[in-house]
């Protein structure tokens, strides 16, 4: 084992919607040498409630500040990887400077009516030949083009991860990984190319799209000579940072939303699942819900309002009390409530609504409501599991849980164990996306022979059984 002061480190930067993190991990053991996190406080307020924007230059400055917080060991960093929130885009000029805010994945302009019967997202989907949701970068761009929302000096669009990578290297041209290209729209995951003909049929100039990353994923080098690897999607990065092996695990994640993800080394298509490019090759089949932890937070807000009106329970005690009541309700023998947790619609049908079935006098209690929502979220994940092609699911030997909605909720762990035919383990990494970006950077910077070797060495041992 090398001396701790000389061991090489891989840096993973994760730019999330609500927080930004940097993890420095040993390439010999995967051990976390340094982890720094800060809240993403760059939201730009707007009077239009559908507009969700952040300040890209403030985000870039926050990343630099976090790097400075790692100064005592930064000289040991041998590769830098980036993951970031998917779908959102910003515009840059020919000098590589931002000339717009970052329009995040939560932006709702695509759901605004373009005509009396069609939204902007629906209109663009007709040109693409498949549905595309609001928040996708090219939906945002389509709206901006049609409503004179572009600055005269717009040259390229890119993701916030692409922008930060470019800035770290002192460049003025962004490079985009296929994981992000697929997340903005009009990209074929099967052929790994933009569908320029369809894009141009929508009267959108394809030259605004950035160059796609090469096989090595290299963007460039920092002034002190560290290779910066192209930013990848946070979904793919979280998978890399969570599973001990690519091919035999299914990842269940509950954060703000909820999703299942499984790796395939070849192109597979399954109704109800999205096939996304995987960094370095292969694909990730994903079933994604807009609800998940957001649904439980909605119930918490309801209880919070009730507590303010009638009780004295402290706000930070609500989740633990909700979990206690839910556990008691599950053990009560009373028929459970069945919740449809589509309170925030779906990616395909934003107007979809949630619902409750099975209401009785005996289960009209806070505990049964809490258990019902947790059951609804678990059911939605299992529905996605059932959609996985048999040639994929037949090789799974374990399920890995990640995100606070699983890691910090023993009731959800119980519900998933009861439904899964696989052992459930918890991810060993606290910041899965940042750790996954670090692993990917180490592989692409040739610190390992390939991605599998990087995972085998750097992954944080066996996941914890629950």
From TrEMBL:
Its EC number is 2.7.1.14. GO terms for biological process: carbohydrate metabolic process. Keywords: Kinase, Transferase. Residues 281-442 form the Carbohydrate kinase FGGY C-terminal domain. Residues 11-223 form the Carbohydrate kinase FGGY N-terminal domain. The keyword DNA-binding does not apply. Transmembrane segments: none annotated. Pfam families: FGGY_C, FGGY_N. GO terms for molecular function: sedoheptulokinase activity. The keyword Transferase applies. Belongs to the FGGY kinase family. This is Sedoheptulokinase. It comes from Paenibacillus endophyticus.
């Amino acid at each position: 084992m090398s001396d701790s002061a000389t061991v090489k480190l891989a840096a993973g930067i994760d730019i999330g919607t609500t927080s930004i993190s940097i993890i420095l991990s040993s390439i010999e053991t995967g051990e976390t040498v340094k982890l720094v996190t800060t809240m993403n406080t760059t939201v730009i307020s707007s009077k239009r409630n559908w507009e969700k924007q952040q300040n890209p230059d403030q985000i870039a400055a926050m990343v630099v500040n976090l790097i400075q917080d790692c100064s005592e060991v930064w000289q040991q960093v041998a590769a830098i990887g980036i993951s970031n929130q998917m779908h959102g885009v910003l515009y840059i000029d020919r000098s590589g400077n931002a000339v717009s805010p970052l329009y995040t994945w939560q932006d709702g302009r695509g759901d605004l009516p373009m005509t009396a019967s069609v939204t902007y997202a629906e209109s663009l989907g007709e040109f693409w030949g498949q549905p595309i949701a609001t928040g996708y970068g090219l939906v945002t761009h389509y709206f901006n083009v049609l409503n004179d929302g572009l600055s005269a000096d717009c040259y390229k669009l890119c993701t916030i991860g692409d922008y930060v990578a470019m800035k770290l290297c002192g460049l003025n041209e962004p490079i985009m990984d296929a994981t992000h290209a697929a997340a903005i729209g009009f990209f074929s995951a099967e052929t790994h190319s933009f569908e320029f003909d369809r894009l141009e049929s929508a009267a959108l100039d394809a030259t605004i799209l950035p160059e796609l990353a090469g096989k090595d994923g290299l963007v460039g080098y920092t002034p002190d000579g560290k290779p910066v690897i192209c930013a990848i999607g946070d979904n793919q990065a979280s998978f890399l940072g969570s599973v001990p092996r690519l091919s035999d695990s299914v990842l269940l994640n509950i954060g703000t939303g909820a999703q299942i993800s499984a790796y395939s080394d070849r192109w597979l298509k399954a109704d109800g699942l999205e096939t996304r490019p995987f960094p370095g090759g292969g694909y990730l089949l994903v079933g994604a819900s807009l609800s998940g932890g957001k649904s439980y937070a909605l119930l918490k807000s309801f209880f919070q309002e009730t507590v303010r009106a009638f009780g004295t329970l402290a706000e930070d005690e609500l989740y633990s009390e909700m979990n206690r009541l839910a556990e008691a309700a599950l053990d009560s023998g009373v028929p459970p409530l069945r919740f449809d947790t589509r309170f925030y619609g779906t990616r395909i049908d934003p107007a979809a609504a949630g619902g409750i079935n099975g209401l009785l006098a005996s289960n009209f209690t806070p505990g049964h409501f809490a258990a019902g929502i947790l059951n609804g979220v678990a059911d939605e994940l299992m529905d996605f599991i059932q959609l996985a092609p048999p040639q994929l699911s037949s090789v799974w030997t374990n399920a890995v849980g990640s995100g606070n909605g699983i890691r910090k909720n023993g009731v959800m762990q119980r519900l998933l164990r009861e439904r899964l035919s696989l052992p459930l383990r918890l991810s060993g990494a606290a910041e899965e996306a940042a750790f996954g970006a670090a692993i990917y950077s180490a592989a692409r910077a040739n610190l390992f022979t390939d991605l599998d070797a990087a995972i085998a060495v750097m992954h944080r041992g066996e996941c914890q059984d629950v």
